[in-house]
C-alpha cells in the first residue's frame, strides 16, 4: 500500500480539544426553523434515505464523493466493491489498482491512498474492519472518534452517522447546503464548511432526531442544486426570497 501523498485535499480537521457548541442566536434559530418549514413541502419531507450502507462502507462512499458528482462517486463505489469484495483486499492491494477501480471520481490518485489509509487505521485501532460499534456511542463521541483519523472532518463524520444504517442524529453540511445557509444569513461569509456544522446544528431544535436533521440537510442541499445555484440563482421562483438578504443580489 502506498503512503499518503502530502498534497491530498483533506477535509479540515477540528482542534483536538473542542469548545462546547455555541448557543444559537434566537432570531437565527427562529429563521432556521422557518426555512425548514418552507422548504419541506417543496421537497417532500420526510425524505427517504438514499443509502442503506453499513457505516464502514458509508465512510468509503463519503471519501469518494468529495468534490465529485453523486452519480460518478456512486459508480466508483460499485466498481470498487466489484473489484474488491472485501475491504481488507483494498488495504492490501497495489494502490494503482484501487485508483483504477475508482477512476470516475475527481482525484482518484489521491483518494485511493486515502481510502487505503483510513481502512488500515480502523483495522489497527479496533482489530477489525467494522464501524458498527459507533451505534453504542453518543453522536458527539462517535464523531470525535472518527475525526481522530487524518482526513476525516466534520462533513465525513456526520455523513457516516447520518447516511448509513446507523441513522444517528448528525447534521452533514455539503457545499450546496453551506452556500444556501450563507446567502440566507444563517452563517457569515467567513464561516467555512467545517466550522459551519456546529453553528447550523445549534440553530435547530436540540431534540430533533435523525430524520429531521437528515431532512434539513437534504432540503437545503436540494435547494442549492435546483434553485439557489452557484451562479444565477433562480430567486424569482424561490420560496425563501422574502426572508433572504441575498435575493436578487447574486449574479
TrEMBL record:
Alphabetized InterPro entries for the sequence: DNA_glycosylase, Endonuclease3_FeS-loop_motif, Endouclease-III_FeS-bd_BS, HhH-GPD_domain, HhH_base_excis_C
Region (Disordered): 1-25
Cofactor: [4Fe-4S] cluster
Pfam families xrefs: HhH-GPD
Residue ranges that the Swiss-Prot or TrEMBL entry lists as coiled coil: none
CDD domains, A to Z: ENDO3c (cd00056)
Similarity field: Belongs to the Nth/MutY family.
Name of the protein in question: Endonuclease III
Organism whose genome encodes this protein: Aureimonas endophytica
Amino acid at each position: 500500500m502506498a503512503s499518503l501523498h502530502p498534497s491530498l485535499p483533506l477535509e479540515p480537521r477540528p482542534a483536538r480539544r473542542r469548545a462546547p457548541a455555541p448557543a444559537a442566536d434566537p432570531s437565527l434559530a427562529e429563521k432556521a426553523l422557518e426555512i425548514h418549514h418552507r422548504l419541506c413541502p417543496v421537497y417532500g419531507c420526510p425524505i427517504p434515505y438514499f443509502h442503506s450502507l453499513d457505516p464502514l462502507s458509508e465512510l468509503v462512499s463519503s471519501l469518494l464523493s468529495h468534490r465529485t458528482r453523486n452519480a460518478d462517486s456512486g459508480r466508483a463505489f460499485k466498481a470498487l466493491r466489484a473489484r474488491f469484495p472485501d475491504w481488507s483486499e483494498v488495504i492490501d492491494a497495489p494502490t494503482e489498482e484501487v485508483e483504477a477501480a475508482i477512476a470516475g471520481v475527481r482525484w482518484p490518485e489521491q483518494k485511493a491512498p486515502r481510502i487505503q489509509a483510513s481502512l488500515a487505521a480502523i483495522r489497527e485501532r479496533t482489530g477489525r474492519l467494522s464501524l458498527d460499534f459507533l451505534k453504542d456511542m453518543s453522536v458527539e463521541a462517535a464523531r470525535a472518534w472518527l475525526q481522530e483519523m487524518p482526513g476525516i472532518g466534520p462533513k465525513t463524520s456526520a455523513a457516516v452517522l447520518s447516511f448509513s444504517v446507523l441513522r444517528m442524529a448528525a447534521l452533514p453540511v455539503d457545499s450546496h447546503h453551506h452556500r444556501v445557509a450563507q446567502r440566507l444569513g444563517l452563517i457569515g461569509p467567513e464561516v467555512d464548511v467545517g466550522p459551519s456544522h456546529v453553528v447550523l446544528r445549534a440553530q435547530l431544535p436540540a431534540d430533533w432526531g435523525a430524520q429531521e436533521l437528515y431532512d434539513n440537510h437534504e432540503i437545503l442541499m436540494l435547494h442549492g442544486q435546483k434553485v439557489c445555484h452557484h451562479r444565477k440563482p433562480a430567486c424569482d421562483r424561490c420560496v425563501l426570497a422574502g426572508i433572504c438578504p441575498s435575493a436578487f443580489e447574486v449574479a
